[in-house]
Amino acid sequence: MVRVAGHFGEWVQGRVGPGGPLALVTVSCPALAVTARVEKDGSAGIDQRPVVLSPEAIARLVAALGLSPGRVVMRAEMPPGGGAGASTAALVALARTCGSAAGPAEIAAACLAAEGATDPLMMPAPDALLWAPRAARPLRAVPPPPRAEIVGGFFGPPIATDPADLDFPDVQDLIESWGAARSLSRIAWIASTSARRTTRARGPKDDPTAEIARELGALGWVRAHTGSARGLIFAPGTVPPTAEPALAAAGLTGIMRFATGGRA
Predict the structure, then answer these.
(1) CB-based contacts of 251, cutoff 8 Å, min separation 6
(2) DSSP character for 134?
(3) Are the C-beta atoms of residues 24 and 222 closer than 8 Å to each other?
(4) Which top-level group of life is the source organism from (predicted)?
């Protein structure tokens, strides 16, 4: 069985300068994944639960990599449209399950052909890249974030990624700051600033995550810049016992806790 880990929003996402490319640094999330296995029963088709990939996206991936899928059983632990990488993880899992010998760059290009946008989940260190999701390539390597604990969930309805959507705030200053940041508190400030800019520009106006982070003494917060994932950033071992109940009381669902960064 193949397992491909997802992500949980982004530490930073936006345009690199006015009119520049869209770029992000992803929040690696080993706790959520898509698994896939081949069923050797002579039939064909993709058994998805929940349904993450459209037939058209599957067909484009198959054509791009020359796959012969057969019968594949696929299970996603994250909701589609949650900003947790369900579709990219599913595409990567399908490619690897079907025995593709393609390397990460080739799989990234196939994912782009399939859906028009992709997260860096096929890469060996997804959160050590400044990634261009509409071009499926790294713009450059960046220092990975320090080890952190994230407590989060999903707020509001799912939001599917529109590959043509480039209406994101300018975060060139935050990307430049990332390279010099060494402490988790500084990374959390960058993440919170990026999240606030996107929330001001794109909503939702009733997002409670920043206020919960302040009340619980979190270092900051992260969000899916497209999607419903929201998380509070804590240093390892400092999550208060009230964190999960506070998120649940604010209406978040699928609440979870995971370690990330520092090659977690």
Answers:
(1) 155, 208
(2) T
(3) no
(4) Bacteria
Tens-binned pLDDT, residue by residue, of the chain (264 aa): 999 999 999 999 999 999 999 999 999 999 999 999 998 876 778 999 999 999 999 999 999 999 988 899 999 999 999 999 999 999 999 999 998 889 999 999 999 999 999 999 999 999 999 999 999 999 999 999 999 999 999 999 999 999 999 999 999 999 999 989 989 999 999 999 999 999 999 999 999 999 999 999 999 999 999 999 999 999 999 999 999 999 999 999 999 999 999 864
Q: Which of 110, 98, 104, 109 is nearest to 73 (CA)?
A: 98
Tokens coding 183 = 């402490």
Q: Token digits for 158?
A: 């799912």
- Mark residue 217 as left, alpha or beta (left: phi above 0; alpha: psi -120 to 50; beta: remaining): left
CA distance 174 to 176: 5
Decide if 261 contacts 147 (C-beta within 8 A): yes
Separation CA 61–CA 44 (nearest Å): 16
Burial of 164 (0-12, 13-18, 19+ CB in 10 A): exposed
Q: Identify the structural domains of the chain with CATH numbers, from first to last.
A: 2-139 (3.30.230.10), 143-260 (3.30.70.890)
